[in-house]
C-alpha cells in the first residue's frame, strides 16, 4: 500500500503521516512547505517538495500510488475574505489539478480534508452531514466547491472517496514532540497557549453577547491525533469497498470560549490576561458535530476528546517548543 499525502508536512497531515508510517504504510508526501515543516516528518519519508499547482510533479508523485490523502490547502478563513484569489487557486484549482492527475494516472481512492465551514451558520446543533451547506466565507466556499468537483469526478471517472469535515482541530501529539506551528496563529487553544507562555500579553475574546449560556461562541474541539486516526479508518473503509461518503469529525461536545480559557488557566497554572472585544463578523454562534455516521460506518471513536486532555497536550508542545519547529 503506497499513499500520497498532499500537505503531509502540515499540522494534521504530518500527524497522519506519522501514524501511517507506524502502521507500515509506504508514504510519499507532496508539500511545498509554504506552512509545513520537514521536521514534522518521520525519518525516511519521501518528500516531493513541490506545489500542487505543478501538474508534472503531481503526476510523478502519483507513480505507484494506491490512494491519496489530500490535506494541502490555505486554511485561514479570515485571510480568505481579504485574499480570495489565493484560496480559490490553492484550494479549488489545485484540487482539480490533483483530480485530473489521479484520473490520468488511474489512482482511484481519495480522502479529502474538508471543514465544518461548509455548513456556515447551522440551523440546529449537533450538525449532521445532511445539514444545509451554506458557507459564509471564501474558505468554506472553496472547500465546498472542491467537494462538488470530487463528487462529479467520482460519478464520471470512478474516483472513490471519503470527505472528512473536521470541526476545530486542536491539541498536539501526546509525546510533546509535534504540534501546530503556523506563522499566523488564529486557533483559540493555540492563542491561549501563547498567552500562557507569555509570548503575547493577553487573549482576546471576540463577542460576549452571543445567545449562549455565558455569551461566548461554542465550538467542538477535536484532537489532532483523533483526526489522524480517522484517515487510517477512511483508507481501510475504501480498501474494504465502502461507498463514497461524507463524515463529520468532532467530539459532539461544545465548549464556549470562556470554558476553553478557564481550562487553559487551570491546565497551565498561568492566569493570563483576557480582554473582551466585539464580535468578529461571520463567526457562527455554535458549531457542534454529530459524528454518529463516522462512528457507525468507519468505527471511528475519539480517544482524546476531553478538553483538559486536548489543552494539556497542546501545552506540552507549546511549552517545550517556544519557536515551534524552529525552521
Ligand atoms: N486546522 C483546522 O482546524 C482545520 C479544520 C478543518 C479543516 N482543516 C483542513 O485540514 C487540512 C490541513 O490543515 P492544517 O491545519 O494541517 O494546515 P497546515 O497549514 O498546517 O497544513 C497544510 C499543508 O499543506 C501545504 N500546502 C499548502 N498549499 C500547498 C500547495 N499548493 N502545494 C503543496 N503543499 C501545499 C503546506 O505547506 C502545509 O504543510 C486543510 O485542508 C484544512 O483546510 C483544518
Question: How would you sum up this structure, described in words?
Answer:
- It is a single chain.
- By secondary structure, the chain is of the alpha/beta class.
- Helix content is 38%, strand content 18%.
- The protein has a domain of 198 residues: Rossmann fold.
- It contains ten helices and 14 strands.
- The strands form four sheets. The chain has a seven-stranded parallel sheet, with helices on both faces. The protein has a three-stranded mixed sheet with strand order 12-9-14.
- Helix 4 packs parallel to helix 5, helix 6 crosses helix 10 and helix 8 crosses helix 10.
- The protein is globular, with a radius of gyration of 19 Å.
- The structure holds nicotinamide-adenine-dinucleotide.
- Nicotinamide-adenine-dinucleotide binds next to helix 1, helix 4, strand 5 and strand 7.
- The site of nicotinamide-adenine-dinucleotide has 29 residues, from helix 1, helix 4, strand 5 and strand 7.
β-strand amount: 15-25%
Number of strands: 14
How would you name the CATH homologous superfamily of the domain at 2-170 and 221-249? NAD(P)-binding Rossmann-like Domain
Which small-molecule species are bound to the chains here?
Answer: nicotinamide-adenine-dinucleotide
Q: Would you identify the CATH architecture of the domain at 2-170 and 221-249?
A: 3-Layer(aba) Sandwich
Helix-strand pattern: EHEEHEHHEHEEHEEEHEEHEEHH
Widest beta sheet: strand line-up: 3-2-1-4-5-6-11
Shape: globular
Unreliable stretches covering 5 or more consecutive residues: none
Radius of gyration using CA atoms only:
19 Å
- Helix/strand structural class: alpha/beta
Percentage of residues in helical conformation: 25-40%
Amino acid at each position: 500500500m503506497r499513499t500520497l499525502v498532499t500537505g503531509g508536512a502540515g499540522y494534521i497531515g504530518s500527524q497522519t503521516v506519522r501514524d501511517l508510517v507506524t502502521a507500515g504504510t509506504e508514504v510519499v508526501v507532496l508539500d511545498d512547505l509554504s506552512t509545513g515543516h520537514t521536521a514534522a516528518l518521520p525519518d525516511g519519508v519521501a518528500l516531493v517538495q513541490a506545489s500542487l499547482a505543478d501538474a508534472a510533479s503531481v503526476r510523478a508523485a502519483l507513480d505507484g500510488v494506491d490512494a491519496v490523502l489530500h490535506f494541502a490547502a490555505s486554511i485561514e478563513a479570515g485571510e480568505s475574505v481579504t485574499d480570495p484569489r489565493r484560496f480559490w487557486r490553492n484550494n479549488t484549482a489545485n484540487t482539480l489539478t490533483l483530480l485530473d492527475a489521479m484520473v490520468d494516472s488511474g489512482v482511484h481512492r481519495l480522502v479529502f480534508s474538508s471543514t465544518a465551514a461548509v455548513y456556515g451558520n447551522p440551523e440546529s446543533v449537533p450538525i449532521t452531514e445532511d445539514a444545509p451547506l451554506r458557507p459564509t466565507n471564501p474558505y468554506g466556499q472553496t472547500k465546498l466547491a472542491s467537494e462538488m468537483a470530487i463528487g462529479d469526478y467520482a460519478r464520471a471517472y470512478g474516483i472513490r472517496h471519503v470527505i472528512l469535515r473536521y470541526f476545530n482541530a486542536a491539541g498536539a501529539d501526546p509525546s510533546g514532540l509535534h504540534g501546530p506551528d503556523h506563522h499566523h496563529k488564529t486557533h483559540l487553544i493555540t492563542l491561549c497557549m501563547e498567552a500562557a507562555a507569555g509570548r503575547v500579553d493577553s487573549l482576546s475574546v471576540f463577542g460576549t453577547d452571543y445567545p449562549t449560556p455565558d455569551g461566548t461562541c461554542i465550538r467542538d474541539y477535536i484532537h489532532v491525533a483523533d483526526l489522524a486516526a480517522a484517515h487510517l479508518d477512511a483508507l481501510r473503509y475504501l480498501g474494504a469497498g465502502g461507498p463514497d461518503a461524507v463524515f463529520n469529525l468532532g467530539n459532539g461536545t461544545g465548549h464556549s470560549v470562556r470554558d476553553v480559557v478557564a481550562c487553559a488557566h487551570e491546565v497551565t497554572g498561568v492566569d493570563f490576561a483576557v480582554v473582551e472585544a466585539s464580535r468578529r463578523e461571520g463567526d457562527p454562534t455554535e458549531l457542534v458535530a454529530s459524528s454518529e455516521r463516522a462512528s457507525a460506518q468507519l468505527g471511528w471513536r475519539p480517544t482524546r476528546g476531553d478538553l483538559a486532555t486536548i489543552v494539556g497536550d497542546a501545552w506540552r508542545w507549546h511549552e517545550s517548543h517556544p519557536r515551534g519547529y524552529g525552521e
